Amino acid sequence: LVFFLFSATSALALSRRVLVSGAGGQTGQHVFRKLLARPDEFSPIGVVRTEESRQNLIETGVPESAVLVWDVTDPKSCSAAMKDVDAVVICTSAKPAPTGVTDEETGRPVFGFPNGQPELVDWLGQKNQIDAAREMGSDTHVLICSSMGGTNPNHPLNNLGRESLDDGTTRGGDILKWKRKAEMYLIESGLPYTIVHPGGLLNEDGGKRELCLGVDDKNTLTDNNTIPREDVAEVLVQALLINEYRGGSFDLVSKQEGDGAATKDFKTLLAALDGKNCDYSLGEVAMQAESEG
């Protein structure tokens, strides 16, 4: 009995406190639940945007004490939520939705960002999280779940939520450019980091496909550019466990199910990159207006 108590106490002391932002979202929730399933290794805190999202997680069996409501756009809120964390997995992102308006030229629905433009969520919100992580210490590992497409300034995703003004300029949108700005800020922060750029996200079971890493929106191992969200979450968890993932920025896709063997060895998966990282001299980052600093 004494040995059991000692072992349980030691495991609790050794488990890493990991904050997962965007834990109410589809990919973030996969990450959060995978960490909860490893209590000997992790003590995760899931943070969500609304009380409704928090209650939804609690109703599925997540402990109340493991879920917080906070606003990533508020620096003080970020600092308070990150108290004593060892690592942060950033899964927050602006989410596009139809505005109800149709583009007269194309006949397609116009999309906007009802819960915050990319500049606010993907740049300032992520910057706030990185700054709060830095307050916790120089060894705080920060991981970002981002997106492929960042090397192409004209990627269609950048058009979502973009508004043309009378003076010929635009505002809003540019989600991949704001994400890239946040990624570069993390790299320059000096904190240990891992940045994952998934391809098109699928709501399918993970653990059934061969995963493929690449850089700069190119992959020599497959022509497929999609991946199940659950597989993305597993790579993020493995990046917390395997030190070699620190300092890495890479793309992540999968082969079609049945093409190749399902990935089980995540050290070998990373080794296939042969040390390559994404080149941030490619693509563009968004620029803030002068009044915004």
Biggest sheet descriptor: 8 strands, mixed
Number of strands: 14
Given as residue ranges, the uncertain stretches (5+ residues, pLDDT < 50) are 3-13
Q: Can you write the helix and strand succession as a string?
A: HEHEHEHEEEHEEEHEEEEHEH
Mean pLDDT across all amino acids: 93
The end-to-end distance, rounded to whole angstroms, is: 60 Å
Overall, the morphology is globular
Determine the number of helices (DSSP H or I, runs of at least 4 residues): 8
Report the structural category: alpha/beta
Strand order of the largest sheet: 3-2-1-4-7-10-14-12
- Helical proportion? 25-40%
User: What is the CA-based Rg, rounded?
Assistant: 19 Å
Strand content: 15-25%
Walk me through what this model shows.
There is one protein chain. This protein is an alpha/beta fold and 293 residues long. 31% of the residues lie in helices and 21% in strands. It contains eight helices and 14 strands. The chain has helices spanning 2-14, 26-36, 51-59, 75-81, 118-135, 175-189, 229-241, 266-271, and strands spanning 16-21, 42-48, 67-69, 87-90, 97-102, 109-112, 141-145, 163-164, 170-171, 193-198, 200-202, 211-214, 226-228, 248-254. It has an eight-stranded mixed sheet with strand order 3-2-1-4-7-10-14-12, sandwiched between helices. It has a two-stranded antiparallel sheet with strand order 5-6. A two-stranded antiparallel sheet has the order 8-9. The radius of gyration is 19 Å and the shape is globular.
Describe the secondary-structure layout.
Elements: H1 2-14, E1 16-21, H2 26-36, E2 42-48, H3 51-59, E3 67-69, H4 75-81, E4 87-90, E5 97-102, E6 109-112, H5 118-135, E7 141-145, E8 163-164, E9 170-171, H6 175-189, E10 193-198, E11 200-202, E12 211-214, E13 226-228, H7 229-241, E14 248-254, H8 266-271
